[in-house]
């Protein structure tokens, strides 16, 4: 399952330059999938019986939701990554392990990213939102715009101005690790081992019942719920280890520019090419001084090496982000009609189209033959 790849990073003081936190993520998806950057304002929901339609299922709405900016595959409701008006950032990863993945439609991990951002003003509150929804509604459903079902469990990196949390799941079971300083990254594998700061109350008992843990040796979440040899995790070839090396190479001097360069790194596999490629990227500056604004940079286009990171700051009266918003198809959208995904519409937004045109011109002049998708 390695082709479906993402990498999410966080650097906290003293690893960063200045008194702030740097968050970054590459979203690696199928090469023909368009990712849009969209803004939703804060809202009050007065009707206590109101329901919210997510990608596949309806859930209960909450009385108030915060303003969010999201980078998301244009066909779904949730998001691969994003931020809210309170400086909370979340990115998710596909993970697999011993617990069977559910194909039945429930909340996608990408739905949980958006829900955590809309409903929480700190990183730990976002974690609470996600695990509560996971317990109530579960996770599952097709994670690609295709008739071929592609499902997975999820891990999350959640950061705010003061701290970060790693949340990793296996079905409804989960473990969380608090990150107070230094650097941390997640990729497409479980990475929480023995440092567990919070957990599902039945997580250890379930592992004992399944025969994955004898109840005697020290509990290691990644080793128990997946097939990883966690003793070799930091020296094994792969993007998780390569990402950790890149963060540590720059430890003490990490800026937002450093994070962008990490996301652009192709030799490590962080910037992915091929059938699965880096379709969008995000970097955020989260100052610990609350008088300073958080700044969020998005590409909205594939390959960060050949894209520009464009800044976004939460201010009053933000208009719709028309240049990075994909066309909508209302009830005719093949995501909403069952059987789903019977055809794939052209979801390219204006920026995506102009980026494709620019790459064709550049490649023609340079004699390169990068593949640029056309419908």
From TrEMBL:
The gene is SCRN3. One of its GO terms (biological process) is proteolysis. It comes from Callorhinus ursinus. GO terms for molecular function: cysteine-type exopeptidase activity; dipeptidase activity. This is Secernin-3 isoform X2. Belongs to the peptidase C69 family. Secernin subfamily. InterPro entries: Peptidase_C69.
């Amino acid at each position: 399952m390695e082709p479906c790849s993402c990498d999410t990073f966080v650097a906290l003081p003293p690893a960063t330059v200045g008194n702030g936190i740097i968050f970054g993520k590459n979203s690696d998806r199928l090469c023909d999938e368009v990712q849009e950057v969209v803004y939703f304002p804060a809202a009050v929901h007065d009707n206590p019986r109101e329901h919210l339609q997510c990608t596949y299922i309806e859930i209960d709405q909450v009385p108030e939701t915060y303003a969010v900016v999201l980078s998301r595959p244009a066909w779904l409701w949730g998001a691969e990554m994003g931020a809210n008006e309170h400086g909370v950032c979340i990115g998710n990863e596909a993970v697999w392990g011993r617990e069977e993945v559910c194909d039945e439609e429930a909340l996608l991990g990408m739905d949980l990213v958006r829900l955590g951002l809309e409903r929480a003003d700190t990183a730990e509150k976002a974690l609470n939102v996600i695990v509560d929804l996971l317990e109530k509604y579960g996770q599952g459903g097709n994670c690609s715009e295709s008739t071929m079902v592609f499902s997975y469990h999820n891990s999350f990196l959640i950061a705010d101005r003061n701290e970060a949390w790693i949340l990793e799941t296996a079905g409804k079971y989960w473990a969380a690790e608090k990150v107070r300083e230094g650097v941390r990254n997640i990729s497409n594998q479980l990475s929480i081992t023995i440092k567990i700061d919070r957990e599902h109350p039945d997580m250890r008992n379930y592992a004992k019942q399944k025969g994955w843990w004898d109840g005697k040796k020290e509990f290691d979440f990644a080793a128990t719920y997946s097939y990883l040899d966690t003793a070799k995790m930091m020296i094994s070839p792969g993007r998780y280890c390569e990402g950790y090396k890149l963060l540590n190479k720059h430890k003490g001097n990490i800026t937002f520019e450093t994070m962008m360069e990490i996301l652009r790194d192709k030799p490590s596999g962080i910037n992915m090419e091929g059938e699965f490629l880096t379709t969008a990227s995000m970097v955020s500056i989260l100052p610990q001084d609350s008088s300073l604004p958080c700044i969020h940079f998005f590409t909205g286009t594939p390959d960060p090496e050949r894209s520009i990171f464009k800044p976004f700051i939460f201010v009053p009266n933000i208009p719709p982000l028309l240049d990075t918003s994909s066309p909508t198809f209302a009830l005719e959208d093949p995501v909403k009609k069952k059987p789903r995904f019977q055809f794939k519409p052209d979801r390219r937004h204006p920026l995506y189209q102009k980026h494709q045109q620019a790459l064709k011109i550049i490649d023609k002049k340079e004699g390169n033959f990068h593949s640029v998708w056309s419908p």
